Amino acid sequence: MSSPAPKSPEMSDKSRKYDRQIRLWGEHGQTVLENAQICLINATALGTEILKGIVLPGIGGFTIVDHRPVTEEDVGCNFFLDLDSVGQPRAKRCMQLLQELNPDVNGDYVDQHVEQLIDGQPDFFRTFDVVVATSISERTIMRLSNVLWEQNIPLIVARSVGFYGVARLQLREHCIIETHPDNKQTDLRLEHPFEELKKHMKETEITNKVPWLVVLYKFLQEWVTTHEGRYPTSYREKSELRELIRSKMDGEQENFEEAIKAVNSSFGGGKPTTAVLEILKDDRCINVNTESNAFWIMARALKDFVDNEGNGLLPVPGVLPDMTADTSSYIGLQTVYRNKAAHDAEIVFRRARQLLKELNKPNDLITDKDVRLFCREAANIAVVRGTKITDEFDKGYHRSSHIASVLETPNSLMGHYIVLRALDRFQADYGCLPGESEAESDTTGMKSIAAKMLSEWGIGTPLSDDLAYEICRYGGAEIHSISAYLGGCIAHELIKLVTRQYRPFDNTFIYDGSTSQTETYKL
Fold first, then answer.
1. Quick count: other Cβ atoms within 10 Å of Cβ 72?
2. Residues 326, 316 within the same domain
3. How confident is the model at residue 8 (pLDDT cuts 50, 70, 90)?
4. How many distinct structural domains can be found in the chain?
5. Is 234 inside any structural domain?
6. Do 495 and 56 touch, CB atoms closer than 8 A?
7. Per-residue model confidence as pLDDT tens digits over 92-111
8. Are 75 and 174 members of one domain?
9. Full domain range(s) for residue 241
10. pLDDT above 50 (res 3)
11. Are residues 415 and 368 part of one domain?
12. Which residues belong to any copy of the THIF-type NAD/FAD binding fold domain (predicted)?
């Protein structure tokens, strides 16, 4: 009688609940998410949809700042609210309903105007990882932008009107370890084999059971010997290597076929890219100080490794792709790479610990686990530095030439950005949203405001009559389905910011629901 198959380990309730998303950002990313705090200013339909998109994945907590009571108009455009909510504080009611989506998430509310907080408690926002503001006035945008820029807290300002929506991300500096590039380079060190790898390859004979990497390495060395020590770089040279491998095949050998396919993608690993070199040469990396965060201290330790023990190369990441081979051959090769990765990471960790000591920072600021992850992802680390939202309100705005060129592009959504900016100015000038009283007359006012704004930037292209009329026709109203889509997009970006994984949009996202079109501009 055969013995029963071993049972797979039981998943925890949390792992089962968040299984799909953990596959995207890992257990460590989920832990960061569960410790994060988000502040939402104004519980509009867009605002509640943004929070829905982070409450369901298990954000640590959220706070809604909103001084308005629920109105019948809110009920008409926000699926979260019902007629029984009318007259209640909007912040409190939306907080209660959003918490029902996930009991693990903590909710709070502040029944105050955000400007009261800016005036009386400017440090209120320091407890949050990201602040999101929806449908706030031009004056509040500028004040909030200045406060959060100084506090180095990411800010997303968003608005949804009719079929149109816009989101603007303000980042002073955002450091990313796990960027998850679409075409990630596999670092196998074929051009720069380390001693342990050379020894392993020398002791391994080519059979149909060894990984394709062994096959490729062996024939690569043969090719290099006949080409004055050079490694293949051009398409022609790589084709020669492929033909060499093919000529040595004895019938159908899967590992040989895999080696031939891998020729194009297996070279070039180890050396820092231009983007990584810029980080290692950055003043924040070279001159770490008591204000430096863990990223920059690890970056400095990495730089010292590259300049010394690494001989110009990054630490070995120790990650191998799948290969057809018998178990012992694959594990043996994998162990060689993993041991080298652990050795390199240990050197970087010791350097990071020494820096912490010199800077009089606590040892637990950087763990060996942090450094292992940093070394594994070193080839793709990134630093994003953004622009201040208030810069866009300057008459001599430096991106105006870019706006002008995009405005002339057929079917671009830059006109939507202009009309939504004009809407903010209209509200500031007249105390109401365009179209709330009379769409026809307000259209003229919107066109005049847009023309003045474009003129201040030195742009002669006028705002489309259709866009001006359309935005007035909405009367400032939200369509929940449009807000739901835009809110989902913004929630994704919030998760990127909080987990410090994946690159966030840079920096203005525009959506036209009538054409199902989106565009991103750097403003």
1. 11
2. yes
3. very low
4. 4
5. yes
6. no
7. 999 999 999 999 999 999 99
8. yes
9. 190-268
10. no
11. no
12. 18-520
State whether residue 158 is helix, strand or coil.
strand
Q: Sign of the C-alpha dihedral, residues 113, 119, 120, 125?
A: positive
Phi and psi for 394 in degrees, rounded to 5?
-75, 145
**Same-domain pairing of 431 and 346:** no
Going by C-beta distance under 8 Å and a sequence separation of 6 or more, which residues neighbour residue 92? 109, 111
Pairwise CA distance, residues 334 & 318, whole Å: 8
Confidence of residue 10 (pLDDT cuts 50, 70, 90): low
Q: Is 89 helix (H, G, I), strand (E, B) or coil?
A: strand
Give the tens place of pLDDT for each residue, 459-479. Answer: 888 888 889 899 999 988 999
| Cβ neighbours around 127 below 10 Å, total | 11
* Cβ contacts of 464 within 8 Å, gap of 6 or more: 415, 419
381 Cβ contact partners less than 8 Å away, ≥ 6 residues apart: 175, 176, 177, 179, 276, 279, 299, 374
pLDDT band at 12 (very low <50, low <70, confident <90, very high): low
Average per-residue pLDDT for the chain: 91
Q: Judge contact between 521 and 417, C-beta under 8 A.
A: yes
Q: Which of 268, 295, 315 is the last residue of a domain?
A: 268
Nearest to 45 by CA among 169, 157, 134, 110: 134
Dihedral sign (CA 140, 146, 150, 152): positive
Q: For residues 322 and 186, what is the distance between their CA atoms, to the nearest angstrom?
A: 11
b or e along 312-333 (b: 16 or more beta carbons within 10 Å of the residue's beta carbon)? ebbbbbbebeebebeeebbebb
pTM score above 0.85: yes
The CATH number of residue 40's host domain is: 3.40.50.720
Tokens of 506: 């840079």
Instruction: Examine the pLDDT at 4 and tell me if it is beyond 60.
Output: no
What is the 3 state secondary structure string of 198-252? Answer: HHHHHHCCCCCCCCHHHHHHHHHHHHHHCCCCCCCCCHHHHHHHHHHHHHCCCCC
CB burial readout 456-480, b (16+ within 10 A) else e? ebebebebbeebbbbbbebbbbbbb
Amino acid at 379: A
Structure confidence at residue 399 as a pLDDT band (50, 70, 90): confident
The whole-number pLDDT of residue 336 equals: 96
Yes or no: say if 158 and 167 are a contact pair by the CB < 8 Å rule. Answer: yes
CA distances, 271 to each of 181, 235, 314 (Å):
17, 20, 6
Q: Return the DSSP state at 69.
A: B
